[in-house]
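>> received
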Amino acid sequence: MNNIKLQQTLPNVFIERNIISEVWKNNLEFCKGEIYLIEADSGTGKSSLCSYVYGYRNDYQGAFCFDNENIRDLSVSNWVELRKHSLSMLFQELRLFTELSALENIQLKNSLTKYKSEKEIETLFDAMGIPDKLNSKVGKLSFGQQQRVAFIRSLCQPFDFIFLDEPISHLDETNGQIMGGLLMEEVKKQGAGVIVTSIGKHIELNYNKIFKL
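>> returned
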């Protein structure tokens, strides 16, 4: 996938509102290999945007297109392949399995493509400062620790684009910088595009463009 286009998109819940946005009700394009930041206030549809692009929700008007194909026309098998090989998502609410260990959560994702070796996964846990949490149940971890587990999971697949919805909301500056470094290392390796959302602090990256939602 080389680009993601938004064509006059707007969440249905906002249809009756007077929306001023650089994203909603506009035509814009995210290109592979570039880095974008979407700054938003709470309640402006930031997480909805991520869910639309990932195909979890379709309660919007307008169109989202992957390489000029409207995502409403994609089949279930298309979505399966896209989520395995083209799109990676770090949701704000993380969507981890709390009854499983941190490592088991990663393995569920990694087993689909065998993208990372066991050693590479352990190295990521070490780099993120949670090597002792590999076998801990996610439900026993702090939200910041869970956030780091979800981030590691997002790197354990091939992708053309990676979306990160408020990825450092519960991390200190040092861990945020570490996350940014690991992210860019993987992004450069894959030649991928990056879309980060934020309602406050964000990963310090060399953004090609910043949009106000």
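>> The CA atoms of residues 180 and 205 lie 7 Å apart.
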